[in-house]
From TrEMBL:
GO-annotated biological processes: proteolysis
Keywords per UniProt: Signal
Stored SUPFAM superfamilies: Zn-dependent exopeptidases
Pfam family, one: Peptidase_M14
Signal sequence range: 1-16
Name of the featured protein: Peptidase M14 domain-containing protein
UniProt-listed InterPro entries: Peptidase_M14
Domain Peptidase M14: 53-321
Source species: Sediminicola luteus
Entry-linked CDD domains: M14-like
Length: 554
């Protein structure tokens, strides 16, 4: 793929230097159109100085079924503060259930705003996209797609308003009312937000692609918006590669041609000038599954995160999110069936791999990963990140020229696996791990229980030491087990033991959640600490209570 990137990015970047791009805070005149007042968003009415509250959004969404035959709504979850988070369903003809969506044969696309309410431009842009689809020139998108939208996913965080020193006077805060960063909960499912999304949306509606909108603090790249995909090496590579090498280049072209903005990868530069490296690691976009977009890739589906730069005016950031979303839907409208077929093929390949190779003990998958170079490219970048106060106020803005410089960097965005483990036919879990089993079921995993006692052959993980190690910029204390796998024959398991077969499409998700060497699996997030500590108290070494079975369980 490296040669492909060299051919793709360098020529178009050179072209962009002489094209009519909206750099800095420049935007097209009247870009959001002329609409009657009852279809204008609260943000638009304020001149982009106010971002919508929960009530603003509910008032806006509640009018849509009264004005359009193509929409229905559903409550995705009720928040810790008792606020309903609404899922908007747009289809032609109108539908209201996942069963109807499946029967239609159309690909399902999910668009999301507000998982981090302090990054609200995606929320505002999605309200405008909804309007264009139902009442404007984008209605044709529903000929080929079913489009689901939740513009205000973290409803409680959106209502915890703080004063800002930017364009917005007030905006929400990152965490939900229970204190969680919802975008670290994709696997452990401790928030009502993610529980609702996974159990009611992902497991039922099964979108072929999800799209999650964000804003990135202090960046030096000159892109109006940056994108990234699900880069967990444990996941099947086909959906990930399709996003990276098919969708992303197409969206760069559409955004430049139709919306006059530059789109690039969600990366950060190194500290030198001119910079040498442009990497996902420098933007906190790791190869781990804890993010919603990353975790979704473990389901054999496609996922995209976007980040607008903090330096942009709020209206420019909303415009960039709006333009990107429209470009994405344009692509999906044309290629949706191709995307759907690829995801279905991936499901079949995952099941076939387990069925045909797991019992030999030779099938492996990755438990961790890292990024390596995917080629050199030219990118727009700013030399510094200085800020200045607007005279007569305490509002800060970036002190930069509108037009960035062009620099050649090494693009470090290609995920590869670094450590691996054997993939079993099934896992066995004791009844004491029912809370873990409940998490798996919420993800849509099929789980059964043994009806009689069995003897099985396989592997168990010997734990020599258990400790806590920090992960990520928030320094989450992750449970870490140090030890090794041992072969175990004729192991007795009683009736009632949970049996999780990997001969199902979610095999890679199951593997990631249960393997003891995965840093942010269910064990890593301390969800097994009570059981592990009880075993540790009996003496070391002890054995991780999830057993790997190779062959059939009879």
């Amino acid at each position: 793929m490296r040669t492909f990137l060299l051919l793709l990015f360098i020529p178009v970047s050179l072209f962009a230097q002489s094209s009519n791009i909206y750099w800095g805070n420049a935007i097209p005149e009247n870009w959001n159109g002329d609409w009657p007042n009852d279809l204008r968003t609260a943000c638009e009415k304020s001149g982009f100085t106010h971002t919508a509250t929960h009530n603003d959004i509910m008032d806006y969404l509640s009018e849509l079924p009264r004005k359009s035959e193509l929409v229905s709504t559903s409550t995705l979850f009720v928040s810790d503060r008792g606020l309903a988070s609404q899922l908007l369903i747009m289809a032609n003809p109108r539908i209201s259930s996942a069963q109807e969506a499946k029967a239609s044969g159309k690909p399902v696309i999910y668009l999301q705003g507000g998982i981090h309410p302090g990054e609200p431009e995606g929320k505002e842009a999605l309200l405008m996209v909804i309007r264009d689809i139902l009442f404007g020139e984008k209605k044709h998108l529903l000929d080929n797609l079913i489009i689901l939208v939740n513009p205000n996913f973290n409803v409680d965080g959106n209502e915890t308003r703080v004063i800002t020193n930017g364009d917005l006077k007030l905006m929400g805060t990152r965490r939900n009312a229970a204190g969680y960063d919802v975008n670290r909960d994709a696997l452990k499912l401790q928030t009502k937000n993610m529980q609702g999304a996974v159990s009611k949306l992902f497991a039922q509606w099964d979108p072929i692609l999800i799209y999650d909108t964000h804003r990135m603090e202090e960046t030096q790249h000159g892109y109006a918006i940056a994108h990234g995909g699900s880069n967990v090496p444990t996941a099947h590579a086909a959906p990930r590669d399709y996003v990276t090498y098919n969708i992303f280049p197409a969206l760069v072209d559409i955004a430049r041609k139709d919306y006059q903005i530059e789109v690039g990868m969600h990366c950060g530069l190194d500290d030198t000038w001119p910079p040498k490296v442009f990497s996902h690691d420098n933007s906190i976009w790791s190869t781990e599954g804890k993010f919603m977009v990353s975790g979704y890739g473990l389901r054999n589906r496609m996922a995209i995160i976007t980040e607008t730069p903090e330096r942009a005016s709020f209206e420019k950031a909303v415009y960039a999110q709006y333009a990107y979303t429209q470009a994405l839907l344009t692509y999906c409208h044309t290629h949706g069936q191709e995307m759907k077929a690829l995801c279905e093929k991936t499901d079949a390949e995952v099941v076939a791999q387990i069925k045909n190779h797991a019992s030999s003990g030779q099938l492996t998958n990755f438990t961790s990963g890292k990024y390596v170079s995917d080629g050199a490219l030219k990118i727009p970048a700013y030399r510094d990140t200085k800020k200045k106060f607007v005279p007569g106020s305490s509002v800060q803005v970036y002190d930069r020229p509108d037009t960035p410089e062009w620099v050649t960097v090494d693009l470090v965005t290609k995920p590869i696996g670094t450590h691996s483990a054997k993939v079993p036919n099934a896992y066995l879990l004791p009844e004491s791990l029912k809370p873990i089993v409940d998490k798996l079921k919420m993800h849509g995993v099929q789980v059964s229980q043994l009806e009689k006692a069995v003897k099985v052959n396989g592997e168990r993980y010997r734990v020599d030491r258990m400790e806590k190690r920090p992960m990520g910029f928030a320094k989450y204390p992750m449970t870490t087990l140090l030890g090794d796998f041992e072969q175990a024959k004729q192991q007795n398991y009683p009736a009632g033991t949970y049996l999780v077969s990997l001969e199902q499409p979610l095999a890679n998700l199951i593997f990631y959640c249960l393997e003891p060497q995965v840093r942010d699996g269910l064990m890593g997030w301390q969800l097994m600490d009570d059981q592990l500590q009880a075993l540790e108290q009996k003496g070391s070494p002890f054995y991780y209570p999830v057993f790997k079975v190779f062959g059939e369980v009879n």
